[in-house]
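Invent a record, attention on tokens:
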Amino acid sequence: MDEAQARDVLAAAGVLPGPAGDARLLALGENAVFAAGDLVVKVGRDAELFDRARRELAVAVWLAESFVPAVRAADPTPLLVEGHPVTVWHRLPDPVRPAEPRDLAELLRMIHTLPTPGFGLPPRDLLSGVERWLRLAGDAIDPADAAYLRERRDGFASAAAALTPHLPPGPIHGDALPRNVHVGPDGPVLVDLETVSADLREHDLVVMALSHDRYGLPDAAYGSFTEAYGWDVRAWPGCPVLRGARETASCAWVAQHAPSNPKALTEFRRRVASLRDGDETVRWYPF
């Protein structure tokens, strides 16, 4: 799905008061995210994401009822338009500053105290998207690399299922990065709720550990995160397993962009090579 296709779906959805062509594209990944007036509209890449979109809206209502600062749905019902899920959200005020790791930690502490909601949440299966992302990559990537990632996926899925957690399991954000925090006039709020799950709380903490180890998050920034949360997941024996699972998923996620973006293919190859070599010092770059 490119921007033009997403705009066609946006126009067909008829959820904006003005022309879809006037909406501003904010992001293009698993979803195309458009802003217009006081609304934000997310257009999913394919129909497989419809159930996830429906759950994300339910999560938004639940977090509002639980007094957790998070993005709010403008319409609690998702649409399926030309094979694409479409959801409508209230637009947040302009940020007053960039989100910091400590902001994320404070929000995670709120979510990590909540019981699982009545509508239920799925486990955080980090690796469930690997097959779809590799399929979308098609012939753009080396078949041997795809086979390698499938083998890693299966190995880490088994290892993760056998972990003994340090923290009590329960609701998690699922993609706990500062980019998924928006700091407005009233403080930090969580955004991108589509991966909210019920699983090991350590999943949310391993994300920042990987940001430090692979993506160059400074020591001081990571330290502010662990201090605000109250624990460093790297002290947990299961950390390397969840880290390995997330690295595998991150490689496959980049692969889906390889057919149309040479930079994505370069980054994919760098990541896979570092995993094959067992070199944890190779720097990865956000994509």
Notes: The two ends are 17 Å apart (CA to CA). The longest strand covers residues 84-90.
